[in-house]
Amino acid sequence: MISPELVRRYPFSAGLSEEQIIALAKTATEQDVPAGEVLFREGDTLCCVYVVVQGAVAINIAVPDRDAAQSVANQITGEMPTTNITVSTAGTGEVFSWSALVEPYLATASAVTLTPCKLIAFDCNELRKLFEKDCCFGCRMMQVAIQIARDRLRDTRIEALVLAAEKQ
Questions:
Q1: C-alpha distances in angstroms, 126 versus 35, 45, 71, 88?
Q2: Distances, alpha carbon 158 to alpha carbons 47, 88, 166, in Å
Q3: Which of 74, 88, 115, 165 has the fewest CB within 10 Å, making it most exposed?
Q4: Residues whose CB is less than 8 angstroms from the CB of residue 147 and which lie 6 or more positions away in sequence, other chains included
Q5: What is the pLDDT of residues 1-54, one digit of tens each?
Q6: Of 166 and 35, the one with more pLDDT
């Protein structure tokens, strides 16, 4: 458990009651993570939603490597050479791994620490139990997840436009 005061500092907790903030804090732990640590990879089953207390985390997606030979066989077998591109960065106060709240709870991107980080990890198994008991709490937290997904989609679209422009 972390201090409810720590949870209250971050914008995602706006609109939550004191009881909801305390419940949220009870599901959380603090983690110190060195730079270069892969927190999860695209497709991994997620168990936590994270908030960056200090540092920066790159949100990466794998795309076909334009410099490597691509074949139909590799595409069919899923062994296509890829490269990771950073589509977004989560910094102090920002939430990431929103898909841990949405079935099937799989990572839609990878996350790698760019700097040494202090993170808050919220246990999503515990959160989902709380949401079943308090639908308003669940609704508010799903709004946070949707806002994050919206921002990641925007960031991905911008990155795709940059890559398309470089290709021309």
A1: 28, 15, 44, 27
A2: 29, 10, 13
A3: 165
A4: none
A5: 899 999 999 988 988 999 999 999 999 999 999 999 999 999 999 999 999 999
A6: 35
CATH fold of 4-167, please? Jelly Rolls (2.60.120)
* Residues comprising the chain, all counted: 168
What residue has token string 């030979």?
69
Over 80: is that where the pLDDT of 78 sits? no
- Tell me which amino acid residue 114 is: L
Name all contacts of 13-20 with Cβ < 8 Å and 24+ positions apart.
15/140, 16/137, 16/140, 20/134, 20/137, 20/140
Q: What beta strand segments (E) does the chain contain?
A: 28-33, 38-40, 48-54, 57-64, 82-90, 95-96, 110-113, 117-123
Whole-structure pTM value: 0.83
Output the six-digit token pair for 39: 């927190």
Task: State both tokens at 133.
Answer: 């008991």
